[in-house]
Amino acid sequence: MKQQIKAAALLVAVLLLTSCGGSKEPPQAYTLGEDSLPSLTALVTLENVQFEETTGEDDAVTYVYSGLSSGGETAQAYANALESDYECTIATDSETSGAPDFAASSGQALAAQPLEDSDQLFLLTIQWEDTSCSVTPSLADADAMPQQEDQSVTLDQAVGVLENMSPSALGLPGSSMDEYLVYPQEGTVFLDDQPCLLLNVYSASTHQFQNSYLLTVPALEVYKLDRVTGEAAPLA
């Protein structure tokens, strides 16, 4: 009888220890070595959230938040905060550029921040279901994110766009752009929030000013600019 009582007492003690050890508060940051990023609950206010940590076969820790009103909306709010406040790049996976579809009932988003003095990224894999969202931090090589195409346009390339057009297309007299000189202006101007380069065209023989044009970047669409009114009209 005494042995049964001792065994029962030991079982209760084990259960109490297990309960105390398994109850954890959500972390304020995800940390790997000396690098970290704010956690989901540090950037997004959640009420009555259920939290647990799981460890995968590769020893990667996943932080799981359940009981959410919307897993997709929570993931989106977290990704937006990481992008705007911590300069993280957001993608769906390593091959797909553009924003993830947070309106889907389930999905994945990657949030990456370059590490200083390193070719690696601090990578957060954010996954969501209807009422849950999980975050798995890891260190990854740069190719874990889709490579961004170079969308810059040099001044010489911008000049070449106008020089390869016909004078009539630019609203100028003459039969050849050899009759004109195209001078780009340093800096960027904006047309309806679209970055543009400003190009001024002069007569090659008289050096008299003819017209100004805006070249959108990177689409390379040409607009004729009225320097008096400040209005720009697309070329037909």
Contiguous helical run count: 4
Structural class: alpha+beta
Shape: elongated
Helical coverage, percent range: 10-25%
Q: Could you tell me the mean pLDDT? A: 87
Q: CA-to-CA gap between the ends?
A: 98 Å
Provide the low-confidence segments as ranges. Answer: 1-22
What portion of the residues fall into strands of 2 or more residues? 35-45%
Question: How many whole angstroms does the radius of gyration measure?
Answer: 29 Å
Order of helices and strands: HEEHEEHEEEEHEEEEE
Strand order of the largest sheet: 3-4-8-7-6-5
Could you give the count of β-strands? Answer: 13
Largest sheet: 6 strands, antiparallel
The count of domains is: 2
Helix and strand layout, with pairings?
Blueprint: H1 2-22, E1 29-32, E2 35-38, H2 40-43, E3 50-55, E4 61-66, H3 71-86, E5 89-91, E6 107-114, E7 120-128, E8 132-141, H4 155-163, E9 180-191, E10 194-203, E11 209-216, E12 222-225, E13 232-234
Antiparallel strand pairs: 1-2, 3-4, 4-8, 5-6, 6-7, 7-8, 9-10, 10-11, 11-12, 12-13
Describe this entry's structure for a reader.
Strand 11 (209-216) and strand 12 (222-225) form a beta hairpin. Mean pLDDT is 87; it is low at 1-22. It is built from four helices and 13 strands. It is an alpha+beta fold and 236 residues long. The chain folds into two domains: 27-144, no CATH class; 155-234. The radius of gyration is 29 Å and the shape is elongated. The protein is 21% helix and 37% strand. Strands 3-4-8-7-6-5 form a six-stranded antiparallel β-sheet, with helices on one face. It has a five-stranded antiparallel β-sheet with strand order 9-10-11-12-13, covered by helices on one side. The chain has a two-stranded antiparallel sheet with strand order 1-2.
